[in-house]
Amino acid sequence: QVQLLESGGGLVQAGGSLRLSCAASGRTLNSYGMGWFRQAPGKEREFVAADNWRGDTAYADSVKGRFTISRDNAKNTVYLQMNVLKPEDTAVYYCAAAKIRFYSGIYRSINDYGAWGQGTQVTVSS
User: For residue 121, which of 56, 42, 38 has the smallest C-alpha distance?
Assistant: First the structure.
């Protein structure tokens, strides 16, 4: 069973940057797609970014051009670089590992992910 641990969240002013990390243990990630989701108070968890085992990536329209998902398979770690942050990016951010290996598409649904981290808080002040 894979365990995921996010880090890197914090408080930042609008226009600033943060890099989130998601370290995995118990399973190597190189054959699984990984995703980042976020949940703001009173709202449902929503898709932010994801990749697949081939290195393809996809982003929510709200973060496209500002956020970048990447991974270091040697470190079994996935990253989310967040630039030009806005107050509406404030949320708890979660990383997740896909249920199915070697899927060539991009999973955007929460239901396609079988393992989740505990989340890391990102707060963007105006």
Answer: 38
